[in-house]
Amino acid sequence: MVAGERPLLLLDCDPGHDDALALALAARHGELLGVTTVAGNVALERTTANALTMCEVLGLDVPVHAGSPRPLVAELRTAEFIHGTSGLDGPAHPPHRRTPASDDAVGFIVDTVRAHPGALWLIATGPLTNVALALRAAPDLAGSLRGVSIMGGGVPWGNVTPAAEFNILVDPEAADEVFRSGVPLTMAGLDATHQWMIDAPIIERVRACGGAAAAFCADLLDFYGAAYGTVYSDRNAGPLHDPVAVLAVTHPQLVTTERLHVAIELTGTHTRGMTVADLRGVRRGAAPNVDVVRTVDATAATDVLVDTLAEYR
Ligand code: RIB
Ligand code: CA
User: Fold this and answer.
1) What are the beta bridge partners of residue 64?
2) 74 close to 170: Cβ distance less than 8 angstroms
3) What is the rounded (10 degree) CA torsion for 34, 290, 298, 305?
4) Which atom of ligand 1 is nearest to the CA of 15?
5) Which of 44, 57, 147, 177 is deepest in the core (most CB within 10 A)?
6) For this structure, is 241 an active site residue?
């Protein structure tokens, strides 16, 4: 991508606190053609409502299309223990009369990709159900998407289980179809996203931006950090997962990637949902299929985040 270019983007998401910040970055640094929602952090009705709320907060005139209410095969599991009952707990949500543009996220994805052959990035920050269904409906998408940049997986660790990260574990069958589709794929896993921890001093920089949008995001990050502090560690700081999948496209200079073969474990008793990356470096291993994000320049990423939120009112 040429420096300074605003890439064409679709954002498929399950807001979710970090999805909300990903939306703010995508709308500012890309030409965001639409948002599609999927069940994940909370049920589809809530992720869709949250996407509409975040568009209101950010003042975005972007269509929101609702997608899959459940994974392809697995039972839906959700993450209220991190994101709260609403999925965006923390700030008071502003009133709005926004409604979804459709309940056909898959059809919107297919039509939009086909309208921009070779030019569109699909950024997926939730379970990959919609993405897999779009590839099933239109296998030609694998060759016409510029790429798919996901937040998901981890090399080698998970968060819901020692092996599996939430987005992949919610719908491993969908992830398996996406990873085997041949689509140009970038993966921001937990080993990368945990390099970008959002603590109190950063949240104060966000709040100091001024404006209602930055205040809303600061309240989101306060809640998110406290939730992580209670579940994963004694440190009130949350890893900013989903924005890494956006920055890997809009600010590729802030990450490093490595091409690896990554397979999705579907059947392991202890490893279902694991992203199994081949780090052996052998000559005759399976051909690499993913650009795996290995490092994130957290200091620069924080500056981008703060500068971006300062531009919203
Ligand atoms: O494991 C982190 C991922 O799961 C993030 O996308 C978060 O929003 C949740 O969807
Ligand atoms: Ca998410």
Assistant:
1) 35
2) yes
3) -10
4) 8
5) 57
6) yes
Tell me which of 29, 83, 194, 241 is the catalytic residue: 241
pLDDT tens string 16-43? 999 999 999 999 999 999 999 999 999 9
- Which residues have CB under 8 Å from 270's CB, separation 6+? 161, 162, 163
Residues paired with 204 in a beta bridge: none
Q: What three-state secondary structure class fits 55?
A: helix
**The amino acid at 310:** A
Amino acid identity at 219: D
Which residues, given as ranges, of the chain have pLDDT below 70?
A: 1-4, 234
Q: Do the Cβ atoms of 26 and 121 come closer than 8 Å?
A: no
Which of helix, strand or coil describes residue 34? strand
| Kind and range of the H or E run holding 181 | none
Please identify which residue in the block is written with the tokens 């997608």: 67
pLDDT recorded at residue 4: 60
Secondary structure of residue 186 in the 3-state scheme = strand
Pocket test for ligand 1, best of 50, 242, 275 (most atoms within 8 A of CB): 242
Q: What's the distance, CA 14 to chain centroid?
A: 8
**Domain edges within the chain:** 8-311
Copy the structure tokens of residue 103. 């309940």
Length of the chain: 313
Report yes or no: 141 and 134 within 8 Å, Cβ to Cβ: yes
CATH number of the structural domain 8-311: 3.90.245.10
CA–CA distance, 280 with 260 (Å, rounded to integer): 10
